[in-house]
Structures are given as C-alpha cells and as structure tokens.
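Title: Prediction job returns without error message
Component: structure pipeline
Severity: low
Priority: P3
Assignee: unassigned

Description:
Job completed but the reporter wants confirmation the result is attached to the right record. Sequence as submitted:
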Amino acid sequence: TSTFSRRDNMNFLGIDVGTTSVKTTLFDGDLSPIVSLTADYTLSSSGDRVEFDAERYYEIIRSEIEKIKREHRIDALAIDMQCETLILTDEARGARSWCVWRIAHPMWWH
C-alpha cells in the first residue's frame, strides 16, 4: 500500500499562527479543504517590543481545534508560526508573553 492510498480516509489539520490571527483548516485525504476558521487577535506593543500572551495563544488554538473536533475527525496536525516568534516555557506552559518577530526584524529597529 502506498502512502497516498493510506491517506484516503484521513483528515489533516493545518494551523497557521500569524501576526494578527490564527487560521485553521481541515483537509481531507485529497487535500481539499473541509472547514476553515479564523480567530483574530491584537498584539500588544511597548517601544521596540511586540508581544502576545502565551496563554491566549494556547486558548485560541485549543478552541479552534475543539470547534473542528465537534464535527470532524483529525488524524494529523501541522502548525506553523510567523517568522521568529519566541516563547519561553516553564513546565510546558508559557512563562511569559511570546516575543513576536517584529522585535527582531531590522525594519523595526529604526
């Protein structure tokens, strides 16, 4: 059995944690979208720092997954983040707000 025939009955969840929203899409085995969700949020900034509360990211992502799980099966998951976002953890939870890529990007140093 090839890899492609094994994925025929699978659902794949992709989560994109972007600069202003979390976009979540569930795909079927043919990689056609089944459902897409978007949860918007606002980053906080102070001087050169741009951050977002780590617990809020967790809550948003978990909520979006739960919405999809109510009606669909999830067999595989992939998550991507915007640029150089950094999270410090303590006991598998966010120890502080996430430092968002803008603080490391040269265009924001001026």
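Comment from assignee: result matches the submitted record. The chain has two helices and nine strands.
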